[in-house]
Amino acid sequence: MTRHVTVTDEDAIRVIRLSRPEKKNAITQDMYRDMTSAIDSAQHNAAIRCLVISGAPGVFTAGNDLEDFLKDGTSTSGTPRASNAVLFLHSLAHNAKPIVAAVDGIAIGIGTTMLFHCDQVIASTRASFATPFIHLGLVPEGASSLLAPWMMGHQRAFSMLVMGRALSADEARAAGFVNTVVAPEALDAEAQKVAREIAALPVEAVAASRKLLKPAPEDLIRRIDHESRLFGERMRSTEAVAAFKAFFARKKA
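Request: output the structure for the sequence above.
Response:
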């Protein structure tokens, strides 16, 4: 693991924590690789019964590292999108272990769309959720174009994924993809409590029931790959490159 992703096994629970607070946990390609490894290596480890994904106190993740995006958007290499991000999404789609997410602070872009793959989402009162793909000239990713309408209905999904409207923790709970909202200082304890509750259930029955409740992995992969192709095309578009450059110009100002 890199220093920006820590993985610890606590009894039957694997905790995957993003730890890049100086960059608001913006996810690099190395971090995607580490998260993928942590998820994949748990699949055939009978001792691990539940996964928890969390961030640093005060911030879940600002989403993709936009410096990586800008490099991709201006690259002439022919690679449509950095592969580690797509591999991470594939791991989420194929994952057979229950996932609990603990969200404190901002969850932007893939910070929100990865939550649609989780089985329980615990948010702090200061959590917020935003998917500003269109504002960057891009399209939704992570099978969110399939999962978000399925979870919250077309109109709410359109507001979030296309119009880029952010949701508070309470609004996300009302929309259906957050289970519980707690005080920030209670977040980790609540996530651990829920994970322990899941881990104590009969393993095979949980796996079979979870499989019944979720779209088939093949359907998720098909949508992820379709979105990724469009995402790669959009990243090279005039709109997207201009949006990235404007973003960095604002940061320097």
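The beta strands are 5-10, 13-18, 50-54, 59-61, 99-103, 106-108, 120-124, 128-130, 167-168, 180-182.
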